[in-house]
Amino acid sequence: MKKNLKKVLSLLLVLSMALAFAACGSGNGNSEDNKPSQSNGTDDKTNPSDEKLAANQSFSYISRTEPATLDPWFNNNGETSNVIISIHEPLLRRTADGGWSEGLCTSYEKSEDSKTHTLVLREGAKWQDGTPVTTEDILFSVEHALKPEMASEIAYRYFPIVNAEAFFTGKVGFEEVGVKADGNTIVFTTTEPCDFFIDMLTSDNMAPVQKAAVEANGELYGTDVDKVVASGPFKLTEWTHQNSMILEKNENYWDADNVKLEKIEVVITSDANTALGMYQSGALSIVRVGKDQLSLFDEKELRVDPRLKVTFIEFNPANEFLSNKNIREALSISFNRQVFAEQILKNGKLAAYGLVPYGVTGVNGGDFREQNGNVVSDASDESEIARAKELLQKGLDELGKTAEDLQEGFVIQTLDSGKQQAQAIQNMWKVNLGLEMPVQVLDINVLLPMLMGGTFDCVIGGGQDSNYRDPQGFMQFIYDENKWDNQEFRSLVEKAHTQTGDERIQTWMEIEKVILENFIYIPQVYAENTWAVNPQVRGLNIYTYGSEFDFKDVYIVE
Question: The pTM is what?
């Protein structure tokens, strides 16, 4: 049975991926989000008419992790999403301008109160075995994801749907869940105004699975090449576990005539040097580029992807010392984000002074981060160091403790891949506050139960990303985890769930300030990936949220 790890597992997955790279909201980006985007969402070289196609239409890239499952409704790994979106066609397809285009469904209508979401299933859509995709498959997919016995760690993602949570917890039958079908029409009903539901519909996590295949394979669906059935532009034909995957063009895909790639090769390795060498030898079509590697590439090869992601330090207020707000604030202030971003990411502009990254929807369609400003201050302002020392001493006095007691009172915890980050922060606390805090490097299987059970002290490098461009995606997890007992915060979140539009965004701005004024979550850095792309590649979509790549429109020129 799949474990019910919920957001804690999500945090750790973000943690491990973020360290390696040294329920709804408005996310469509169109003024009229019921209308499909006119953009095809690809790069600026998408017209093959003036360039000759290469004979070998093959694309290759690196996945740094082995997929645990290719089941869209249970996957919690961002890199695996790139494979899933290639073989499981979403209900609607995301475009690079933040809009949507047709997928398994050909239309989308949202009610005026943003609670009813109506789609029409494409006639003639097929699975790779030639059988039709049906509305029964869609209804089954939702039920499959929410069955209590499956204990999905990402079931919470579907809770905006009416009675989804009640079904997941065994309180109602599936017939009471807010997804219904009538002919080729599918209607989702949400418990509250959900003007960001379009981002859920375009995500890989809501791409339907074939009912017959899941019933035949049970929990093993998506775990091997013969246990997954495609509906997308590609199908899985080989999977050498821990090593590689091969995807080939799906001749039964509804838009197969417009898919030019014949094959995608996925190499599974976390070794950055191996990846770089493969790209330089021509064995890879794309490679992640570290800031210290930029000089190795022609500027024309490089593409920057500002991901919607934030990493943070998390303090456990159940710890005797970290229960004191003055001590937490002192530790937060004495952390210099600018220096940290320069040291770890070689990019000071990624220093995070809020939980919500740039690029998230704000009031009147603006940018949330720009509008809510810097919510925290730190040692990049030297005058703040003296205040941090005063707060530290005040907190110690309140507890009747000394700095020596504090140094023995909690441990900085991280994964092996986060050791450099932890040491950088450890040094800042030593220089700015005179504290020598120990660092404990743990295996993920050790740290995970500590996070779940609330027995950790201070975790470095945890973080949050989101499948939709809305502030809720970066703060709702705190409410769902229920580890922080703050009534003002909980009341504001519940208030936001009754609102729509700018009023709701304004409430989330308040919520961010309340969270950060309590110094439980200390934002570190935002994310930005730089890629080198083979000059022969055209039409590659690179998205800032959700699945990072979409290969449907890719083709290779001579």
Answer: 0.82
Q: How many CB atoms lie within 10 A of CB 391?
A: 24
- Which segments of 44-151 are extended strands (E)? 58-63, 92-94, 100-102, 105-110, 116-121
Which region among 143-152, 440-449, 520-529 has the lowest average model confidence (pLDDT)?
440-449
Q: Are 445 and 416 in contact (CB under 8 A)?
A: no
Let me know: does 296 contact 290? Beta carbons within 8 Å. Answer: no
Judged against a pLDDT cut of 90, whether residue 127 lies above it is answered with yes
Q: What is the C-alpha to C-alpha distance for residues 36 and 40, in angstroms, rounded to an integer? A: 10
Q: Can you give 394-436 as a three-state secondary structure string?
A: HHHHHHCCCHHHHHCCCCEEEEHHHHHHHHHHHHHHHHHHCCC
pLDDT at 99: 87
**What radius of gyration, in Å, describes the C-alpha atoms of the chain?**
24
Token duo for residue 167: 């079904």
Q: Which two tokens stand for residue 111?
A: 């009610």
Cα–Cα distances (Å) from 278 to 43, 121, 227, 282, 301, in that order, read: 23, 41, 30, 6, 15
Q: Are 444 and 434 in contact (CB under 8 A)?
A: no
- At 386-401, the pLDDT tens digits run 999 999 999 999 999 9
- Which positions ≥6 away from 23 have C-beta within 8 Å? 156, 157, 159, 160, 194, 472, 476, 497
The model's pLDDT over 58-116, given as tens digits with 9 standing for 90+, comes to 999 999 989 999 999 999 888 899 999 999 999 999 988 878 999 999 999 999 999 99
- Rounded Cα distance, 189 and 114, in Å: 9
Q: Tell me how crowded residue 340 is: count the other CB atoms within 10 A of its CB.
A: 23
In sequence order, what are the beta bridge partners of 529? 305
Degrees to nearest 5, angle at CA 463 with 74 and 373: 125
Closest CA to 222 of 79, 104, 85, 84: 84
What is the per-residue pLDDT for 466? 86
Q: How far apart are CA 206 and CA 174, in angstroms?
A: 17
**Which residue's entry shows tokens 């205040």?**
387
Q: Which residues touch 70 (CB under 8 Å, ≥6 apart)?
A: 80, 83, 84, 87, 88, 222, 223, 228, 236
SS3 206: helix
Q: Which two tokens stand for residue 164?
A: 């989804």
Report phi then psi at 465, rounded to 5.
-120, 180
| Residue among 207, 223, 20, 196 at smallest CA distance from 110 | 196
Half-sphere exposure of 430 toward its Cβ, with a 13 Å CA cutoff?
11
Tell me how far apart the alpha carbons of residues 357 and 413 are, in angstroms, rounded to a whole number.
Answer: 24
